[in-house]
């Protein structure tokens, strides 16, 4: 870091610290105040925080809904912010641009905030927004660790704020009908629910060392609650997904949608009482930390929830992905009398035990429309993806990753010995080994990681008998970007 950038960053940090007291004071004053009652003919005034990726979809979908007015944009990248503000100005729409979310939250003319920042900001941004009297739509995963997700749930339970999580499959009419049909027992007892994230993820490459931050980015604000360190990635604005300090791997990126669907299918309303994971970052050597090949086994009492991540192709010489019963990114629910395949965000296919399709559910839905309906009605029970639902599905991601992070390298035989009493896990390992073999990876020569076998108290959301695992349920936040202990 040169002297000019150091001085610039120091000044920005000082400015951010100066903003904090006014936001806290305002937050304390507003958390006990009822949200503005929005009349039938009034617009809901919305701000979007982070719109260089998924946030662009927020703006498009919100703009297509009646009774919504986008009044503010926030992004820590000045080039992104300026481009966004200009795009609205070109349409004769005035929006206010902000670099710092805390300054945005001081604006009383904002009713709701949508959040599409990197994962490590999700819970803190949502908590601050709720404390500032705003309704919130926060992207998945709702949290970057289990504890902070629980804090957001506690806060929403005390305030009359609406908090929707961006697991938009929950608003698909077809999937809602399919889940209701499944829960009526039409296929008998559920045997297992399997989530799939077979999605191509190529190497992010190796850097010679810490990389420069784009000049347009306020890096102090981008890092926020995470540890301050120079990035080790060539692609600044996306590859943060593959580092533990800011992302959660593909199970927490794409996969959390399918984790949520699988848990919905099982009807589970708590985290699992036991979990383990195995896999690795295999097929290439790069700077990424999270696994590109992973199995997570949540041992619920009624039926297990199993999740599979594959970032490598079906064969090493193509980008074509494997399929499991016709699905690449989706879920498969096995039951006594057949099974259900959900291969997309809006379709569910039902098969009997002879693999004959007997039913189809197919229709989409607007997750933002559901959110805004609740904002107007003030009825949080009408939300399709509440903070509680978002927290639980994110927590399943985190506990699976904690098992992996506490693991050790092991041969395929060692893994089989450890899981020999779990036929579903043995079957997963066998298929994973075949998949890697098609990519010229021999696990006997390139060992994968066998994660820790963890038990948890689902009520307390704490591991039993493993202090290292419990340490990973939260993190050390960087001042002043701290998730509050008391909410």
Mind telling me the C-alpha Rg?
23 Å
Strand elements, count: 18
- State the CATH class of the largest domain: Alpha Beta
Second-tier CATH architecture of the largest domain: 2-Layer Sandwich
Measure the end-to-end span: 37 Å
CATH homolog superfamily of the largest domain: Dihydrodipicolinate Reductase, domain 2
Give the DSSP E fraction (strand runs of 2 or more residues). Answer: 15-25%
Summarize model confidence as the mean pLDDT.
Answer: 93
Commentary on this structure:
The protein is an alpha/beta fold and 487 residues long. The protein has helices at 3-30, 54-63, 78-89, 101-105, 122-131, 146-158, 173-183, 219-223, 255-266, 367-377, 387-405, 412-419, 423-438, 467-471; strands spanning 44-49, 68-74, 96-98, 112-115, 135-138, 163-165, 190-198, 274-280, 293-298, 305-310, 329-335, 338-342, 347-352, 357-362, 408-410, 448-450, 454-457, 462-463. The chain folds into 2 domains: 3-168, NAD(P)-binding Rossmann-like Domain (Rossmann fold, 3-Layer(aba) Sandwich); 171-211 and 219-364 and 387-471, Dihydrodipicolinate Reductase, domain 2 (2-Layer Sandwich). It is built from 14 helices and 18 strands. The strands form 2 sheets. Strands 7, 8, 9, 10, 11, 12, 13, 14, 15, 16, 17 and 18 form a 12-stranded mixed sheet that branches. The chain has a 6-stranded parallel sheet with strand order 3-2-1-4-5-6, with helices on both faces. β1, α2 and β2 (68-74) form a beta-alpha-beta unit. The longest helix is centred in the first third of the chain and has 28 residues, at 3-30.
């Amino acid at each position: 870091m040169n002297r000019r950038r150091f001085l610039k960053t120091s000044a920005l940090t000082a400015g951010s610290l100066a903003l904090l007291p006014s936001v806290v004071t305002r937050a304390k004053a507003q958390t006990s105040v009822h949200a503005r009652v929005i009349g039938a003919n009034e617009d809901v005034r919305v701000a979007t925080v982070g719109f260089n990726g998924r946030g662009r979809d927020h703006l498009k979908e919100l703009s297509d809904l009646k009774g919504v007015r986008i009044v503010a944009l926030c992004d820590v990248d000045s080039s992104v912010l300026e481009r966004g503000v200009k795009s609205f100005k070109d349409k004769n729409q005035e929006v206010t641009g902000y670099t710092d979310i805390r300054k945005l939250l001081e604006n009383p003319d904002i009713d709701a905030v949508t959040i599409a920042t990197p994962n490590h900001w999700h819970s803190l941004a949502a908590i601050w927004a709720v404390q500032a009297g705003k309704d919130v739509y926060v992207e998945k995963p709702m949290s970057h660790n289990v504890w902070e997700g629980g804090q957001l749930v506690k806060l929403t339970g005390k305030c009359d704020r609406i908090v929707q999580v961006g697991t938009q499959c929950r608003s698909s009419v077809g999937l809602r009908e399919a889940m209701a049909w499944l829960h009526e027992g039409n296929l008998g007892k559920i045997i297992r629910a399997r989530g799939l994230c077979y999605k191509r993820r190529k190497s992010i490459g190796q850097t010679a060392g810490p990389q420069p931050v784009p000049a347009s980015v306020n890096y102090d604000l981008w890092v926020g609650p995470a540890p301050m360190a120079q990035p080790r990635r060539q692609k600044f604005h996306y590859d943060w997904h593959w580092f533990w300090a800011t992302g959660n791997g593909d199970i927490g990126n794409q996969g959390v949608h399918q984790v949520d669907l699988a848990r919905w299918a099982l009807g589970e309303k708590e985290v699992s009482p036991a979990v383990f994971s195995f896999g690795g970052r295999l097929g290439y050597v790069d700077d990424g930390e999270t696994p590109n090949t992973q199995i997570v086994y949540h041992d619920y009492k009624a039926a297990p929830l199993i999740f599979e991540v594959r970032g490598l192709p079906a064969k090493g010489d193509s980008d074509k992905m494997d399929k499991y019963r016709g699905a690449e990114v989706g879920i498969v629910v096995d039951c006594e009398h057949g099974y259900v395949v959900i291969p997309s965000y809006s379709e569910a296919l039902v098969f009997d035990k002879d693999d004959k399709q007997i039913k189809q559910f197919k229709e989409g839905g607007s997750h933002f429309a559901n959110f805004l309906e609740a904002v107007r009605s003030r009825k949080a029970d009408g939300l399709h993806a509440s903070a509680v639902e978002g927290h639980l599905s994110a927590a399943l991601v985190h506990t699976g990753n904690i098992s992996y992070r506490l693991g050790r390298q092991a041969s395929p035989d060692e893994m089989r010995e450890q899981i020999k009493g779990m036929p579903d896990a043995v079957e997963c390992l066998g298929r994973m080994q075949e998949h890697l073999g098609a990519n010229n990876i021999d696990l006997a020569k390139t060992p994968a990681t066998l994660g820790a076998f963890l038990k948890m108290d689902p009520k307390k959301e704490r591991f039993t008998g493993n202090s290292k695992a419990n340490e990973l349920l939260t993190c050390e936040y960087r001042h002043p970007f701290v998730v509050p202990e008391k909410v």
